Amino acid sequence: MENRKLRKADFYTSIILFALGLFMLVQTFSIPMTDSYAGVTNAWYISPALFPLFICPAIMLLAVLIFLRAVKEEGFANLIHLKTRKSQEEVNQYIRGFAVGFMIISHVYVFLPRTDFLLSTCFNLMIMMSAFYLEQMSLLIKISVYYLLASLLVIVFALMKASIPMVTNEDFVFLMDIYLLISITAFLLFCSRLVTTNLQLKRKLKQVIILSITLPVILCPIIKYFFLIPLPVEGIILEKMDNIRYCQQDESWIECLNY
Amino acid sequence: MLVLNEFFSFFGYVYQLITFQNMLILFGSSLLGIIFGAMPGLTATLGVALLTTLTFGLETGTAMIALLGMYVGAVYGGSYPSILINIPGTAAAAATAMEGYPLALKGQAGRALGITTTSSTIGTLIGMMFLVALAPLITQLALEFTSIEFFLLALFGILISGTLTSKDLVFKGWITGLIGLLLSTVGRESLQSYPRFTVGLNDLEGGIEVVPVLIGAFGIPQIITVLKEKTILGDAKKVQRILPDFRVVFRNFKHIVRSALIGVGIGSVPGIGEDIAGWVSYGTAKNSSDNPDNFGKGEISGLISSETANNACIGGALIPLLTLGIPGSPPAAMLLGALMIHNVNPGPMINFDKPGFITQMTAILFLASIAMWFNGIFLARQVVKLLKIPMELFMPVIVILCVIGSYALGFRVFNLYLMVPIGIIAYFMKEMEYPISPLVIGVILGPMADENLRRFLMVTKGDFTPMFTRPVSLILLTIVTYTILIQIPVLKRMKDKYVSPWIKQVFSKVFVLFTGKSKIEKGVENGHA
Best mutation site among B62, B204, B228 for testing chain A: the one with the most A CBs within 10 Å? Predict the structure, then answer.
């Protein structure tokens, strides 16, 4: 980052850091200093507040020093009014960075706790790989919007579930998995329509689809059965995988799947 | 005698560790490390972090084989894209690109890779020798430390890491270290079990775990940066047969020894990584060379210096990690987290809690360097093919691995909820040139600093004077105070005016002692009057 932009960023971050230090300091004051806690009478020097009382003012002091440095180098007025023109490439970088952040947040906070791990991983890989590997800004925006809508629908379903007490967690996960399967299928149709005219993009999309499906299918059993790590949500697919894994020898595949 | 005993038991451990299963894990993790290092955007720290969670179920020794294999392999693997496409695979190999790529342009990529492989192996081995020799002495010395020394040591670790990793203002490094310390105070503290800053969340009562912080702080910013900047990798230069070229390596023996010493020295400073070791060593090689003009044009000594130092740094980083519980580099910080998961608490008591553990670690480091050499010489050409995989396909897979890595420790989805905001904040901090290593060092050393400060005050009943009467604490306090005060402009100017010329004089005398000629004479010889 160029120096002027860096100082402008310092100017604002120092204010945020000062506020953080102050907020934590106020919180620290609520920790007992000399009162008794859990039957033990405190002295100031063994209080749990002692260490944060050293750290918070130090953060505030350093934030002030960064602030003063920014003001000294650029001048207060300049920092307030400094406007920087962004090139098209910079704007594109912002959009790409924002899209990555959004896709990770959405995967972790929306899909992962509510849907089958294998399905959510597959969907996330499909979205991220196609958004960035197809290398077209218009496609990236369209795919991001698609992911946003899919995430919003999950949130709406989760809110609706809270208002209907009859729906159990298992039922909800099952419904969400069905929804995710539909979303994945719709996404594939949506993407294949977007790239119909371009042969190179078609080839890339094919690679994305193969990778995003095969990777979770290989990875999940390794984690679950080899490393013995139970996955966050085991829904429609992972349950079937369990059925096959623990199937008796004398039973047919159909019987195993229908446990 | 103590050191000799260590050397004998070292060979015993090497013999014990050679089993089919261990060798399979060692060569596999070393190869995985080389791949991680070779892929631009993936780092040794991230590799060790992701592998940590998968080694959770393994026996401690086997887990360490996997992790050290990965660590050594990843630091070395960074040299592949440096040499072949002029883009360092890891920050540690940035200096390698300066000489490696010109060599590749001359059609000597295979030779450069061979020399890199051998000098990296020698660097790791020299680092290991320092570890085996110094660790027992330091642990014995550290047994004399009381709580105040540990508090000051933790403080020094954060300050020095903040000072040396800041590219912009030193305050930025310190403030991230302090934020790390603040994060470490979240949860029930150890002396009275009082819940601090838990904001009523039960999940925070146990505190913030190190692994999600590490994965978040090192993984997420990397993913965002790579996908955002859309780095287009050039075509890799053709690799011929990779030959170790021992003659060239031995001809540069003095560079190897000097670079290894620099690597070990820098590695043993808390929080300073292999990248700084590589650059310092490269810079020293250039400054002390008879032909500095050849640097940047494929000078072998530059290549050897950078690669020897960054791998020697590994042994150096393990010295404070194992003896004091203070990680010497970011991957070593992750290794500390892994050791804690396996119920090993590094520090002065390690020889009592786990007798022979340090020697076992040096034996693993020895085997890891050998595995790295074999993988490097025989499989490098296959690894190079992986450089053709587009990052846009690779990075989403890393997202999934980060998710699994954070979750697998304790099977807590809450770890993921922590990893993401920490990662995003770390990304913005990195963009604004706030270094990330001090943050992680702060999270790791926070409990040590907090507990020891209060223990000390409990013993002295709130009296601070023993801090000034104990020699070790006084030395540490002086260093900590100096590190802080020297940032004040007036004192900085005074240092530049009075102290720095004196230090320069001492260094130039040492330089004359070693080379037999002054720098000015050298400049005249090279035509730089």
Answer: B228
